[in-house]
From TrEMBL:
PANTHER family assigned to the protein according to its UniProt record, in alphabetical order: 3-OXO-5-ALPHA-STEROID 4-DEHYDROGENASE (PTHR32251), STEROID 5-ALPHA REDUCTASE C-TERMINAL DOMAIN-CONTAINING PROTEIN (PTHR32251:SF17)
TM segment ranges: 12-32, 39-57, 118-139, 145-163, 195-214
Protein name: DUF1295 domain-containing protein
InterPro entries assigned: UstE-like
Keywords for the protein's UniProt record, in alphabetical order: Membrane, Transmembrane, Transmembrane helix
One Pfam family hit: DUF1295
Regions annotated as coiled coil: none
């Protein structure tokens, strides 16, 4: 039977929040030095990896060591892969158009506005969304079916992200595809294989704590919030508003699933 150390979990919340804040403040300093705030997108994945590491250290002696290690490793692998991909994709480019448009309308100092509206907000989201990873360290009892199911779903998500990102990068690297809509490979099955991958990753990490109803209920906000961001917030919805007027996008949208993968319509 699994138990859960609520007191130890509660004591670890503040240090994990401090770790997320430290990553974002350090990234803000880098952004000021470089003169671009797109670096915060790299810090998103790094922040999760750092919080997972801090939680792993703090939970030593509290929860099952196998579950502690599983949650920390899965989170770090996902976060560092994402950070590396975004860093490589943005190398040599200027400011992200999203941040450029936002900061052009900023009241007062645009850098301080970016600190409040981008860096600190993302730091808070990293802490909140990582709650299942933090909770996993304080859950006793051996790793069981829920955790292995979560790891399997995480693997599906990482596969969709990695393969989708690789396919899109190869497509964009071919000059013959300039101005065209990517509709091949995984992108023929879903318009957003990378966002669907994120969705699977975070529901998978949540399943790791589902062995105990209390921690599962307390951390359900994490995958629900991530799902909202991916589907209706800054992910799919925002990207498709930008792509709506591109030639061929209407036809692509008509034949391709908006999120959950399925064979394309004729």
């Amino acid at each position: 039977m699994s138990g859960f150390s609520w007191a130890a979990f509660a004591q670890g919340l503040a240090p994990c929040a401090g770790a997320a804040l430290a990553v974002m403040l350090a990234t803000f300093a880098v952004g000021l030095h470089k003169g671009v705030h797109r670096v915060v997108d790299v810090a998103w994945g790094i922040g999760f990896a750092v919080v997972a590491l801090v939680s792993y250290v703090l939970s030593a002696g509290e929860g099952d060591d196998g579950r502690r290690l599983l949650a920390a490793v899965l989170t770090a692998v996902w976060g560092l892969r994402l950070a590396g991909h975004i860093a490589h994709r943005g190398r040599g480019h200027g400011e992200d158009p999203r941040y450029e448009a936002m900061l052009a309308k900023a009241p007062g100092n645009p850098d301080l506005y970016a600190l409040r509206k981008v860096y600190l907000l993302q730091g808070a989201l990293v802490w909140l969304i990582s709650l299942p990873v933090q909770a996993a360290g304080y859950l006793t009892g051996p790793v069981g079916g829920w955790a292995w199911a979560g790891a399997a779903l995480w693997a599906v998500g990482l596969l969709f992200e990695g393969v989708g990102d690789h396919q899109l990068a190869r497509f964009k690297a071919d000059p013959a595809n300039r101005g065209k809509i990517m509709d091949r490979g995984l992108w023929a099955w879903t318009r957003h294989p990378n966002y669907f991958g994120d969705f699977c990753v975070w529901w998978g990490l949540f399943l790791i704590v589902c062995q105990a109803p209390g921690p599962a209920a307390a951390t359900l906000v994490s995958p629900v919030l991530m799902s909202f961001l991916l589907i209706g917030g800054s992910g799919k919805a925002l990207l498709e508003r930008h792509m709506a007027e591109r030639p061929g996008f209407a036809a692509y949208r008509a034949r391709t699933s908006g999120f959950l993968p399925r064979p394309p319509r004729r």
